[in-house]
Amino acid sequence: MTEAANVIAVDHTGFAVSSLDEAVRFWTEALGFKLERRSEMGGDFLRQVTGVDDPNVKTATVRAPDGFLIELLRYSKGRQNGAVPNSGGAIGAAHLALTVRDIHAAIARIEGAGWKPKGSPQSIPGGPRKGTLVAYVSGPDHITIEFMQPPVN
Length: 153
Fold this sequence. Notes:
The protein is about 25% helix and about 30% strand. With about 150 residues, it is α+β, with helices and mostly antiparallel strands. Strand 3 and strand 4 form a beta hairpin. The N and C termini lie far apart (about 35 Å).
């Protein structure tokens, strides 16, 4: 299937946010990502790419410790476009899974930044990831992140 689609790699993950400054602060201060760049885009090119009417957008790109890129996008008419439901089970809902050394410390850190856990850390009971602690957390824009702490061997 990937050969037919000609996919060769994952480049980045993007999230539309209500406040670019708040999002950058969370990703850099709470999660330890590095701010790579900020930019602004708009006009017919972006409308043709995204399908969004009047797509004026401010962006910031942050880099994870392993190099993975997250693009944060603040559209000028973002609130008019709607919001993602606050449920990980909603159609179209997505999450990003991050491997952490200490899931309890990670949750404490994001709570200090104003994000909230959706549940409590649980150990995967079986299969190839048996013993991995997992928990979902959610922020003000209902972006869901899954923390995953591998078992200690």
